[in-house]
């Protein structure tokens, strides 16, 4: 009886000693395995989601590049043909960027949409540089006329009081001379000027555009410069027929010159915008492809590490059972 009692007491002591350790070990192992499997599944899922988003972005950039290419082909021919409109006026009335006048108006042409590189910021920098120049002494004033949402958003921050007129959604409809002539007429009616300085981006190629400035003088300044000699002195060699006064002829010529220069500037800037957008979207597509390659490599490495870890755990468990 004494031996049986001692054996029962020994079993109770052994059970009380070994059972907590066994329970703690089993719970710790299951928690650790679930945590590890959760980390592996979350990491691969994050990489997969990132790969999916990059693929979608790449599709969008490629589509935008194709759209810009089609728009560029449609506008480029118009821009090349429009160059023949303002060149005769430049030969007759000249283009005098350094003429000294009291009232300067900087007409900044930009786009309404972004994602086209630095074309808009370049136009704004050029306009600010012209605004800071002193063309006619300390009494000179300079105002802005803005075409396009992007230039307006930048210039309104520090030059809101100098903005006389702003127009947006210029390219909502296909560009034509009648539309631009109406815009030019609104500018001439609402803005007092001695010199209009049109800032735009001249189209050279898909990857190249040149910031350009064209100057259109008022009839009074043209007559003054012609009487003073210089480049406009040859105007006095022409005879006016039809009974119109010289001032009226100059008024009509300068207004027509401004509309022609504006038409060419708007088309050149539209070509530069589409070319810059093509280049920007092409670079974005290439960058997305490179990022996708890196993410694919990361995903494969993460998945391989997960599979390797699971194999090691299976082999370790089998070895422990055999031992």
Largest sheet: 5 strands, mixed
Sequence of strands across the biggest β-sheet? 3-2-1-4-5
- Approximately what portion of the residues adopt beta-strand conformation? 5-15%
- SSE-based structural type: alpha/beta
The coarse overall form would be elongated
Number of strands: 5
Helix amount:
55-70%
- Total number of helical segments? 6
What are the segments in which pLDDT stays under 50 over at least 5 consecutive residues? Answer: 1-41
Radius of gyration: 37 Å
Distance between the termini: 38 Å
Q: Secondary-structure element order, as H and E?
A: HEHEHEHEEHH
* Average of the residue pLDDT scores: 81
Describe this structure in words.
- With 323 residues, this protein is of the alpha/beta class.
- Helix content is 67%, strand content 12%.
- The chain contains six helices and five strands, in the order H-E-H-E-H-E-H-E-E-H-H.
- It has helices at residues 2-93, 119-132, 149-158, 177-190, 219-228, 246-322, and strands at residues 103-109, 141-147, 163-167, 195-205, 208-217.
